[in-house]
DNA sequence: AACGTCGTTCTCATATAGAGAACGATAACA
DNA sequence: TGTTATCGTTCTCTATATGAGAACGACGTT
């Protein structure tokens, strides 16, 4: 750690601890998780609180994330014009399939669902919106990963493949084959990846540079998806083709 | 600035600059706005980028807010159980009035809309969701402010009252009278506060401690609201009474 | 009543933050 | 096509802010 501002890095890490923790945390607990002295953590919290990034509960003295983060997060969404751009297309797809429709983007070696339209069915799956997860872990993410450089893919698959259900692929070699298939077909179908009993169909969005920054996916219970599988693939590919074109993508270079 | 970590404070200020700025900003511009050397700002950005709080556009070298902020902002929402709690009540109110229904909370000397259900009418107003604004500036906020300590109110009104339309109250004295009226009636109606031609009706939510942490409001075009004014007030007060009770509030102590 | 743990405050040696100059790259202009 | 201005980035260096650690009072438990 030579080039970075250590206290800033600590403050970022502190905030991120809250992502996988209960709503409120105390100084001592944060101090342990950060491996930093209590005094230092306290000063961090005081500073972050003065800027609205952290809030202290006066009743139990514990700390939680502040509302300034809500503003900043919302600004991130507004900045990302693809979300507004794709909205009407997602809505069309949602009306046709009546299933959960998601817009997924790449960020570093992770994927994030940045928009979704819920299924109209009483039985349905929920996408973990705005949550970060690995690029190999869902169909939506794979549809993005498959169309990146071999070099980048290798880098992503070099990490241990974390699985969320017993059905997931854990072998880097098998994943490579899978991605090859996605490139061949132009879309991805898989079941039981993130939730057992769920099937996802996903297709990439190409931008003007031929890059794939995002994907659109349809997700639903497997038994409801299977009968319509081919139809939903057609609809999905139609939608992603339209979005890609409007982003300036020209097929075949 | 003695008790605070200066670099952390700077990093917070840096992030907040983006709230009222274009999507992307350069080092030099940020350096000017922060009144910090370019070198220092660059190191700040490098650190924030390494944690996903900032993203650099490789094409023009400019910086924008990172997706980690999206995750954190979403976590803030999930933490705030009032949002989930109030959702069904807001929906009921939305179905009855067909107008924009908002849930507004207090944060320091500001108010924030944390949830909304859009109007079904083709002509409608938009609430600036997740945006921070002064406690005197909208009917929803005033319905909260009115039920706070005289001391706190004085503190809020001591600042210069920023106005968004020519019709707003700018005199602290007049605002005090207005708040007195809200306390007497138990709700607030006002027009042309934030948008010309809009009327808002708002009522406070009381918690188990008798405090007012939030309000519910109905907002629509004045000419469409006026005929139903009394009816919407009744519906609104019914809803806020139910929410308050479920939060543990007992009327009359 | 004694103990453990909490959040907070304090001191102090040391690592580090931030100013400022210099860099190459790029864009604007004549 | 040079010239100039401005950009993002890198570097050095010293004053300073940082973070460890001990000590504090306040709770809650045993």
Question: What can you tell me about this protein's structure?
Answer:
The first copy, chain A, is of the alpha+beta class. Chain A folds into 2 domains: 66 residues, Winged helix-like DNA-binding domain superfamily/Winged helix DNA-binding domain (Arc Repressor Mutant, subunit A, Orthogonal Bundle); 167 residues, Beta-Lactamase, CATH 3.30.450.40. Helix content of chain A is 45%, strand content 18%. Chain A is built from 10 helices and 8 strands. In chain A, the strands form 2 sheets. A 6-stranded antiparallel beta sheet of chain A has the order 5-4-3-8-7-6, with helices on both faces. In chain A, strands 1-2 form a two-stranded antiparallel sheet. In chain A, strand 3 and strand 4 form a beta hairpin. In chain A, helix 2 crosses helix 3 and helix 5 packs antiparallel against helix 10. The longest helix of chain A has 18 residues. The termini of chain A are far apart. The model of chain A has no long low-confidence stretch (mean pLDDT 88). At the A-B interface, helix 1, helix 3 and helix 4 of A face helix 1, helix 3 and helix 4 of B. Chain B binds a DNA duplex (30 and 30 nucleotides) through helix 1 and helix 3.
Biggest protein-protein contact in the assembly: A-B, 47 and 47 residues
Total helical segments of chain A = 10
**What is the global morphology of chain A?**
elongated
CATH class of the largest domain in chain A: Alpha Beta
CATH fold-level assignment of the largest domain in chain A? Beta-Lactamase
Major sheet summary line of chain A: 6 strands, antiparallel
Q: SS-based structural class of chain A?
A: alpha+beta
Strand content of chain A: 15-25%
Subunit arrangement of the protein: homodimer
Total strand segments of chain A: 8
**What is the number of domains of chain A?**
2
Runs of chain A with pLDDT <50, length 5+?
none
> What sequence of helices (H) and strands (E) makes up the elements of chain A?
HHHEEHHEEEHHHEEEHH
């Amino acid at each position: 750690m030579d080039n970075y501002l250590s206290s800033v890095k600590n403050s970022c890490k502190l905030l991120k601890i809250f992502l996988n923790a209960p709503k409120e945390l105390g100084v001592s607990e944060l101090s342990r998780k950060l491996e930093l002295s209590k005094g230092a953590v306290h000063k961090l919290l005081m500073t972050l609180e003065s800027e609205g990034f952290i809030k202290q509960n006066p009743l139990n003295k514990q700390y939680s994330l502040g509302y300034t983060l809500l503003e900043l997060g919302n600004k991130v969404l507004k900045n990302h014009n693809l979300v507004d751009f794709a909205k009407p297309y997602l809505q069309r797809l949602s009306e046709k399939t009546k299933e959960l429709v998601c817009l997924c983007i790449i960020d570093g070696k992770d994927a994030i669902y940045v928009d979704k339209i819920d299924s109209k069915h009483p039985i349905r799956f929920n996408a973990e919106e705005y949550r970060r997860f690995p690029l190999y872990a869902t169909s939506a993410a794979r549809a993005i990963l498959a169309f990146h450089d071999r070099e980048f893919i290798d880098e992503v698959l070099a990490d241990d493949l974390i699985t969320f259900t017993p059905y997931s692929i854990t072998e880097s070699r098998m994943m490579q084959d899978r991605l090859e298939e996605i490139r061949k077909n132009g879309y991805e179908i898989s079941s039981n990846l993130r939730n057992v009993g769920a099937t996802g169909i996903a297709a990439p969005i190409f931008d003007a540079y031929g890059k794939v920054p995002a994907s659109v996916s349809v997700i639903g219970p497997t038994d409801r998806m299977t009968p319509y599988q081919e139809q939903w693939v057609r609809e999905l590919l139609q939608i992603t083709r339209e979005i890609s074109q409007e982003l300036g993508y020209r097929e075949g270079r």
